Amino acid sequence: MTYQDIKISEDATYFLYQGKLIFGRTFKEVLKFHAPGLAPVLDVSGAYHIDINGSPLYTERYSRTFGFYCNRAAVIDKQGHWFHIDEKGQRVYTQSYTWAGNYQENICTVRDKNNQYFHIDLQGNRIYEQNYLYAGDFKDGYACVKNEKGWKHINTQGNDLNGKYFLDLGIFHKGFATAKDEKGWFHIDKQGNALYKERYLMVEPFYNGFSLVTCFNEDKNIIDAMGRKVLTI
After folding, report:
1. Which domain holds residue 70?
2. Would you say the pTM of this structure is higher than 0.90?
3. H or E element that contains 100
4. Mind giving me the DSSP string for 27-47?
5. What is the four-CA torsion angle of 120, 121, 126, 129, rounded to 10 degrees?
6. Among candidates 38, 147, 32, which has minimal Cα distance to 86?
7. Is residue 136 part of a domain?
8. How far apart are alpha carbons 103 and 107 in whole angstroms?
9. Does 36 reside within a domain?
10. Per-residue pLDDT tens for 105-124?
11. Are 187 and 199 in contact (CB under 8 A)?
12. pLDDT > 70 fraction of the chain, expressed in percent and rounded
């Protein structure tokens, strides 16, 4: 049995292997197993992680635990402090936050006591000095952040990707991102240039070369990467 073979019940209170309850018990809440084979659980003693044998990883108990990503898991202690532990259950860094995300591409977004967002590396060190009103996860080397000027993309060193700001912004997917200006939503390339002149009420990322968009009259169309309408849904 590998951790990928273990499923969770519909009510998320126990684990299943080949459709049958394993570990001989139920919990108040469980989340999925993640590499390296650990899952967050909650019972009367508190929140913690178990291995694929159902054994606790450590004796500490938290208010809440989350899944492992990049061998790091976010936890909340009984005082409401957020931080990350490693796959041995050890605290990774000394700082505490009012919120912490999941590591993506070995980088994680956090929020401090002043409600400022920034990113930290696997050791808990800031990767840049700037603070933001919001900072999202990294994907393919870039993240969306917001400051007083608006939304922009940064790279893993914290530098601007293209120096352009938008009213709203999405992550890059296969080289293109969703963006919003005063006229509506559209798609941009890594230089921050619009792929087409049309604007929409809502757009989805491109999926194998095509995107579902919602017009301002709420019609839904499929467009290609040139912005050409291919189909009306």
Report:
1. 1-92
2. yes
3. strand 99-100
4. -SEE---BTTTBEEEEETTEE
5. -90
6. 38
7. no
8. 5
9. yes
10. 999 999 999 999 999 999 99
11. no
12. 100
Amino acid (1-letter code) at residue 44: V
* pLDDT tens, position by position, 124-168: 999 999 999 999 999 999 999 999 999 999 999 999 999 999 999
The number of distinct structural domains making up the chain is: 1
Residue 39 lies in a domain: yes
200: number of Cβ within 10 Å: 24
Beta bridge partners of 143: 154
Q: Tell me how crowded residue 73 is: count the other CB atoms within 10 A of its CB.
A: 27
Residue keyed to tokens 């467009």: 223
* Ordered strands of the 134-135 beta sheet: 134-135, 142-147, 150-155
Task: List beta partners, residue 221.
Answer: 213, 232
The mean pLDDT of 63-86, rounded to a whole number, is 98
At position 106, the amino acid (one-letter code) is N
Angstrom distances, CA of residue 74 to CA of 8, 17, 41, 141: 20, 26, 13, 21
Dist CA 117 CA 41 (whole Å) = 28
- Whether 224 is covered by a domain: the verdict is no
